[in-house]
Amino acid sequence: MNSPVASSHADASAEAPIFAAANAPLPVLRVPLLDRERQLYAYELLFHRDGGDDQALLQGVLGAITDGALTRLVRGNRAFLNLPLDLLPVDADVLAHQPRLGVVLQPEVAEDPGVMMRIEQMAQRGCQFLLDLGTLDPNATHTLGVLLQQVQLVRLDAARLAPEVLAGRARDLHQRGLHVVAGQVNDHAIFDRCAALPFEAVQGRYLLVPQPVAVPVLTANRLSMLRLMGALHESNPGPVELGKIVRDDAVLSYKLLSCVNSAYFALPRQLKSVQQAAIFFGVSRMRNWVDTMAMCSMDDRPPELLRAALIRAHMCEGLAKATAQGDPEMAFTVGLFSLLDVLMCAPMEYLLTQLRLAPEINDALTGRGGSFAAVLKQILAWEAGELTKLEVTPQRIEKLAALYLGATQWADQVYAGASGKKVQ
Predict the structure, then answer these.
(1) What's the whole-model pTM score?
(2) In which domain, by residue range, is 94 found?
(3) Three-state DSSP state, 76
(4) How does pLDDT run across 310-345, given as a tens digit for each residue?
(5) What is the pLDDT of residues 271-307, one digit of tens each?
(6) How far apart are alpha carbons 316 and 360 in whole angstroms?
(7) What would the DSSP string read from start to end of 2-52?
(8) Is 280 within the bounds of a domain?
(9) Can you give the CATH number for the domain in which 98 is found?
(10) Helix and strand tally (H, E) in the chain?
């Protein structure tokens, strides 16, 4: 039966035009900054350039600001545009009417009087700035001191600064009344170092990196979830069997049906049981939904980590469809489970022995290769802003941009449905 959700979502390319410029999807990536409770503090908006038309990119960004598309992308949360100096919005009024959107600045702007005048004007109109100081001494020059008076946030490179230097600068900037952000926090050792310092937020790949554990110790909730997933993937159940596996978890069943029956998916009729849903969508699709709802129930994990897993799942599925690289539903599982070790706080190899997934999925998740591994590799390169290392064509960048924009919308809606929180 055909429906708007015959896949995990309608084709992502159908959603892309709300972000488009000159019929091309805006190549934007949202990167979270998390506070001490690992809740969202703000997003940084990065743009893949790769030798493209900068003027078209600028027009796309300005258009997305004006029509509210960027605000929707970040769900109304605070966000900072990271654009090169020559692409900073010339019209300060564009940002003046978007109080939740700020701009990332590089230290060299302090040496340009014309740009400094623009920054001062924008600051007077309420625009917020995040100065990416990196490893530079905030007291290095007089002009840098002047720039610091115009910004509200300063980001330090926590990976490259010596621990004692990082601590001294964080405290100094904090005492000046500035909000300090730890950047390049790409492993848990750096994160632990930053935890004792006066940082308002932390940013880096650490969120997606598993913590090393000598012996995996799973909570009762996680063990239950793992058993559920194992039963779903090991026995290849039909609709009736799938319904029986899930029905004992009343909360999961409720969330599952609430999500698939939500207005966002516009079903022609209400589905009243998991068995009905499995018949309507197909067992493989419904198994993916059960996996998704189960993972979203992990309320002790950072929401942005869960959203990242959902975005990967949707993008892997879409890319597998576009390139005919294996079954899209298996690709969805690869993307969703690619962060399972981080979510479960246990080694991937250990978790896979409990799940008994298809060999193609196992190979992708353990880095052994296969068509799904190639799909996941492209998604991870997009996520890390490293597409140039793969020599990806402009056409593929457009496709990834469209997939990503669709995936963020889908992930935000699904997470909201699973957690009972309204999407802003």
Answers:
(1) 0.89
(2) 12-208
(3) coil
(4) 999 999 999 999 888 789 999 999 999 999 999 999
(5) 888 888 888 888 888 889 889 988 888 888 999 999 9
(6) 14
(7) --TTSSSSS-GGGTGGGGEETTEE--EEEEEEE-TTS-EEEEEEEE--TT-
(8) no
(9) 3.20.20.450
(10) 19, 10
